[in-house]
Amino acid sequence: MKRILLAEDEEIIRMLIVDTLEDEDYHVDEAADGEEALQLFERNEYDLLILDYMMPGYTGMEVIKKVRAGLVNSEVKILMLSAKSQKHEQEMILSVGANEFMQKPFSPLQLIEKVKAILDED
């Protein structure tokens, strides 16, 4: 079973994403902010990180920079979620180390398709 760490500060969105991913048999750990996400990441091994762009504590961008600079599992796949839609913002997110970007709002089907593509699953 693939392990995913979801960091999203909006509880309702977090619950919807967790339900969607668990329905597809992924194990999902949740973090409400960037600091909690980094703590979980340091203690567990994940196949994918799903990060919200704007979170209290550390932003999604700061989490990516810390993960990519780390020694443990620094090559983990990362999907950034954001309401930001400007091309330069998306390019910046990818340039700091995200593998993929997904604009909010999105459907559960779009999320599952993106996650499966990132994890190379059919």
Automatic annotation (TrEMBL):
**The keyword DNA-binding belongs to this UniProt entry's keyword annotation:** yes
Domain of life of the organism in this record?
Bacteria
Gene Ontology MF term list: DNA binding
Q: Which InterPro entries match?
A: Bact_response_regulator, CheY-like_superfamily, Sig_transdc_resp-reg_receiver
Question: What are the Response regulatory domain coordinates in residue numbering?
Answer: 3-119
What range does the record give for the signal peptide?
Answer: none
Keywords linked to the UniProt accession: DNA-binding, Phosphoprotein, Transcription, Transcription regulation, Two-component regulatory system
UniProt-listed GO biological process terms:
phosphorelay signal transduction system
Q: Residues bearing 4-aspartylphosphate?
A: D52
PANTHER family cross-referenced by the UniProt entry: RESPONSE REGULATORY DOMAIN-CONTAINING PROTEIN, STRESS RESPONSE REGULATOR PROTEIN 1
- Entry protein name: Alkaline phosphatase synthesis transcriptional regulatory protein PhoP
Source organism per entry reads Pseudoneobacillus rhizosphaerae
Q: What is the lineage of its organism?
A: Bacteria, Bacillati, Bacillota, Bacilli, Bacillales
Q: Which gene encodes it?
A: phoP_2
